[in-house]
Here is the input.
Amino acid sequence: MKLYYAPGACSLSPHISLREAGVPFDLERVDLASRKTASGEEFSKVNPKGYVPALRLDDGEVLTEGAVMVQFIADRYPAAGLAPANGTLERVRLQEHLNFIASELHKAFSPLFTPSTSEEAKRAAQANVARRLDYFEQLLGDGRLYLLGERFSVADAYLFTVANWTGPTGIGLAKWPNVAAFVARVAARPSVQAAMRAEGLIAA
Ligand SMILES: N[C@@H](CCC(=O)N[C@@H](CS)C(=O)NCC(=O)O)C(=O)O
Here is the structure.
């Protein structure tokens, strides 16, 4: 299995999930500017959508869409307990979180990473991000450790990844102490440390 990633991008979420699952995998960095992989491959040939993450399975199949990919990882390696069983209400709750993170929070950041975004559009994007973080701040306010309760799931890997973007965008997490504590809790997990080291986000 090979995960195509860009450092600190949303591909960090399946990267963490693979490490949590404890399975062997290869990593290949993608330069999103040149659209080339580290080995010189045209990334559009791997993922015609042109974005990370992409996961090449051992049989050659390529999976895209992070929220789906992490569920594939969780289901293929159930011993790691990264997702509730399919068909349960808890699984639907997980999917609710994954979908909300993907379509509402993750994409709310996109204008903030686009140099041509006007100041007005940036302010609107920041307000959108803030509203989404308000939701998680309230949810985590009941003292739960992770989004589904006491147990870490693939949704936590995704929220961690996206919440980290409040750093480079200057939003910070000072207004969301529960989210900040969550991020620190997830960051302390050995799988997360290993993934961040492998992506060069923290010192080796
Ligand atoms: N719908 C995709 C979006 C993936 C995405 O936004 N990837 C970003 C990095 S976080 C990217 O590679 N952007 C480069 C591009 O779209 O050209 C998913 O959820 O996996």
